[in-house]
Design brief:
Layout (H helix, E strand, L loop, with lengths): L1 H9 L9 E7 L3 H8 L6 E7 L4 H11 L4 E4 L4 E3 L3 H6 L6 E9 L7 H20 L13 E4 H6 L12 H11 L3 E12 L5 H22 L17 H12 L5 H16 L4 H24 L2 H9 L1 E2 L1 E4 L1 E2 L11 E2 L1 H13 L3 E3 L1 H8 L9 E7 L4 H5 L1 H6 L5 E4 L23 H9 L3 E4 L12 H19 L5 E3 L7 H8 L4 E3 L6 E2 L10 E2 L6 H10 L3 H28 L1
Parallel strand pairs: 1-2, 5-7, 9-13, 9-19, 10-11, 12-13, 13-14, 14-15, 16-17
Antiparallel strand pairs: 3-6, 4-7, 5-6, 8-18
Helix pairs in contact: 8-11, 9-11, 10-11, 11-12, 18-19
Amino acid sequence: MLKRTLPTVLAQDLAADQYEIVIVLDGPDRDTASWLRGLRLAHRLHIVEQPHRGLAAARNCGIRAASGNRVLLLDDDLLCSARLVRCHAEAVGDNLIAMGAVLVSADSPRTIVADWVRRSTQERMRRLATDGPEWPRDIALCANYSAPRQLILSCGGFDETFIGACEEFDIGIRLRKLGAEFRYLPDAVAHEFYVKSPDQMVQTDCRARGANEVRLCRKHPEFRPVSAVARFNQGARVTRALRYAAVRAPFSLENVLAPAFRGAEVLARAGIGRQIAVRLLEFRRGSALFRSAREQSGGWVEFRSEFAATLPVLLYHHVGPTHRGAYPLLTVSPPRFEAQMKWLRRRGYTAIRSSDWSAWIRGERPLPKKPVLITFDDGYADLVQHALPVLKRHNLTATIFLPTQRIGRSNEWDSGSWTQVPLMNREQISEWAAQGMEFGSHSRTHPDLTALSRDQLDDEIAGSAQDLQSLTGLRPVAFAYPYGLFNDQVRECVSRVFDLSFTTKMGVNRLADDPFVLQRLEVLPSDNEVSFASALVCGFRPVTALRTKVALRSRIRAAFHVLSRPLLQG
């Protein structure tokens, strides 16, 4: 491999005395060492041999042996463009991490694996050229990355306990904490001569990635929501169900998947079903990664608790008798509310606060086996009589979102449309906060935040947080968007003040979800036990969804008949 790649390192458009080359042989390799020492070069070439200790140890060894101020990391399978070293040398800055493009070499074997990597790297390079480096997928220190040597040494170098994967993300996170800046160099191009087999990718690389991702998340909890293992619960329902089956099975599915992939690969070479082979490869990769993560976690129960928990969030507004002229879909009757709370307790659900979810995301404490978050928007006064005592009686807690400049008044934002209903007053809020209820912000005056100026947004959002802290003595953790409406500017303003924010979009929440676009399950007055249970378990109402789909198809069919009648008559 070095006979193919080393000449491209030597053929840079810099004079030979302007850079040095350090080659680390990680493990006994007498033939390579003998060939390297027999070279007669104008360049400074340092050959370092060490027992086999892995990539992190090899890079540390090479960095310590280097004498330059800036270190460029390369792998032995990279073919370098003539300007690569110059581009990195010109990236000046004591805290600058520079990264170049790594594409798959055109003379790599034309396999499904190489083509998959080629497509992935091309997409990544297009993204970097457009958006620049992103957290976390580019915050690393790997091949075709360069950094000040002293900066690497000051953070302790690579963590050599990461064997096979994730050492580059670990040091990238540590460098980021030290204030390192990451910059993309589009002209610093290298091409990877990719020769790995599917089994090497799946059984070696993906398994190492799964185990080390768990270790990385434990070392750097802020990495948890953006890690690969956090994506276990993401995607379509069918995809999630297949992942659950693959990870929870008592045996690896590789005995089935590997032969199926090889058969699909043969067909793909004949021009048939290439997409099937790609999908099988991706499923093999995911299966290996998540099973390895499960093993590293200690088992399925531990893996689910640490990475795969889901949180249904119930959304209520008004609990009590229906007020004449009030919006009818916001009122749940007291008997129905109590029945729903009893159902939660019978099924083993534990009510948590929004602060508990935030703490779990940060890796600070575990969640109960079946968590649920009960929320109320607006803070209607009837809650004090009809909802909060029920919660207390069943040992449940809740989060109540208040428009802070309407406390003790009424839902004035509905003026002209619906009947005004009294809201909780300061004394009631203080009393129930002392009994363990959590209070969050619903802005100050319940406006459509997307229609406000930046100054008005700051007043509604930051001002409401100040109001609540003055009232309860606690910094509010969560925010609920009035009417469920928000845009990028609103989200950004909320994220500077709160840890979480909630929409009215229906669904359940997972580790990898945006904490400022959390979903809720709105409880309707018409919900019976079946619809209530299905919403909690599925994250949607299957019967309602089915009715909607049938009604939509019926309308499409009727429209088709209307449009086609003139043609048939003609």
